[in-house]
Design a protein that fits this description.
Elements: H1 2-7, H2 9-20, H3 31-61, E1 69-70, E2 89-97, E3 103-107, E4 115-120, E5 126-131, E6 140-145, E7 159-162, E8 167-175, H4 183-191, E9 195-198, H5 199-202, H6 221-224, H7 229-237, H8 247-253, H9 271-292, E10 297-299, E11 302-304, H10 312-315, H11 319-328, E12 338-339, E13 342-343, E14 359-363, E15 371-383, E16 397-399, E17 412-417, E18 429-431, E19 437-446, E20 461-462
Parallel strand pairs: 6-7, 17-18
Antiparallel strand pairs: 1-2, 2-8, 3-6, 3-9, 4-5, 4-8, 10-11, 11-13, 12-19, 13-19, 14-17, 14-20, 15-16, 15-19
Helix pairs in contact: 3-7, 3-8, 3-9, 3-11, 9-11
Amino acid sequence: MVSKRLVMTCFILIMLISSLFSFQPELTLDPIEAKSIAKEAYIFAYPMLEHYRTMFLQLLSWGELNEFTHYKQLYGPKNKMIVRPNNDTVYSMIWMDLTVEPIVIFIPAIPARYFSFQLVDMYTHNLAYIGARTTGPGPTTFMVAGPHWDGEIPAGIDRVVYSEGNFVYCVVRTGVNSELEGDLQRVLEIQQQYKSQALSDYCGNPSTEETRSVDLPPFDQSVADSTGFIGYFNFLLGQLEIHPSEEALIDGSSRIGIGPNYPFDPDSLSEAVREAVEEAITEARDEIYAMETKIGIVQDGWSLPERIFGNRYRMQGLYLMRAAAAHLGLYGNDLEETFYPNCLSDGDGDTLDASKYNYVITFSKDRLPPVDPRGFWSLTMYDKDQFLVENPLNRYSIGDRSELKYGEDGSLVLYLQHESPGASKESNWLPTPDGEFKLTMRIYIPLPEGLDPLYCPPPVQKAGE
């Protein structure tokens, strides 16, 4: 199995890396030209490298290609693996290898619940969504096919998603209402009904071929951060059908040894060219980080993320934006799927600090989050380190699935403070830490009018002001 081979990477690391980065013929190139080529190539390659790093480490740690892995709980205060986790959905993931044949995915009927299957390609484009927004409550059977498959679509397949590359990542989010007793268990039962199957098995003709025809080169961050990124990039290009619009970019990069499955040896470059490539990487990273600071609109203390994730059509040519989005956070959703305003300060521009103030957010009836009935919205509380906050209610988020109390005029007041606002207001209380805190709103399936212009939640105000 794949994971068993990967676990042996301590033994094969040197052998595989040396084979990946070797036998490149000597290249002669002006360092100034080399720097320009390398900078453009690194910005293009950056999200692909981050994606491959995630793939390799996840498969090494807990996964098998073409098989689902399920998280069986919502994130809570004890989970410190990722910052700003959502407390609304449980995750399932599957890395699909399409080298030999397509993979078929089965989804059961899931009525009256938010869910989405987000399909991400090797470029980090969001290929497609299957779920409550796009295909309805199901049941659904869909197939994911690689660039070289041209077979007939068998009966029973509701949709085919075509990928430009041999590997596709599927991130599954299944909504859980933590305030509804027994709801997590119901979702765990749904998870167990998510199934994957090779197309030949689906058709009743199991393939005798190996399910994977290439070995995954062990990922070494120090190599990816150096001239050696070219070796990884070449491997990834070899798993793709290069898009016509990008052929010129890849062909031009061949002058520094870039190309599909090209073997690469950094020592084949002159010392001056190697130094130029290293300088290009540093400058490219600086541009990526600078671009990240320009993402989003700030209004009333909220940062409203613009469109930084999408399919090829929407992200075509936006290579710096794509790289910045990957650094900001891989596998972000299209705006139509989920909109994530983040609170940066209160309405006065001051840091949110519950050791100094109690806070409120007041939504008038016409300023409630614009959410489609198939989705929901939530507001999640984090401490200054962006982790969920222990509290006596075990309430880490609040939203339209909560038993909120609205005013007679349809308005809604949420209380953000460390101590209880009193029994009559606890239904609308989102507990804070006794200090600085951060907030993220999530609108799952926002209404179109919430995206043009972008919806801005009301400002967080100090209580009594």
